[in-house]
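Sample pair:
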Amino acid sequence: MESNSKPINTVIFDLGGVLIDWNPRYLYRTIFRTEEEVEWFLTHVCTTEWNEQQDAGRSFAAATEELVARFPGHESAIRAWYDRWQETIRGPIPETVDVLETLKKKNQHRLYALTNWSAETFPWALQHFPFLHWFEGIVVSGVEKTRKPFPDIYQILFDRYQVVPAQTLFIDDNHANIQTAKSLGLHTIHFTSPEYLRQELTHRLLL
C-alpha cells in the first residue's frame, strides 16, 4: 500500500478486463477450428499492436483495409473483428460491478473511468452497460486520440475533472498502465481478480 498523508477521495477504474469481459478469443474460437489457429491469428494478423492503433483513434475502415492488403488470405477473419465486434464481449464482470456499486452507494469517493477503447464502438458499450453511467466522467482513448500507458491521457482526466493524483486510486489490469500511473503519483491496484480488488479496497479502508 502506497503511503500518503492525504486521504483518497477519487477512484479511477479501467473498463476492459476489470468491469467488462472483453477478449477477441471469444469471437475467433467460433471462426477457427483449433486454439492454435486462434493464437496464430491474434499473434500475427489482428495483433494487440494493430488493435491499439484503433484505441488511439484510427478508424475501423482504415485499419481493416490496411490489414486485408497485407493478409488477403485472411480477409474474412480480419473483417470479422469489427463486423462481429460485439462477440468479443462476454458481458460485465459481475463481482467487480458489485464493488463499483458499493463504492457508489457509500458516496465517499468521486468515480471515474479511463479506458483504451475505440471511439466507434464505445457508444454501444454505453447503451448496454448501465453501470457506466455511474461514473462522474469517462475518458475514452479513441475520442482523445491517445491511449494508456502514455501519460498524456492520464493528464487529460486530471485536468478535465480536477483530479489530484496524490488523492486518487487507479485500478487497471495492465502492468504498463499501472507503472505510468505510479510515475504520475497515483495510488494503484493492479487488478488480477474481483476478489483481490475487494480485499485491497477493504485493506485500504475504502469499502
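The longest helix spans residues 94-106.
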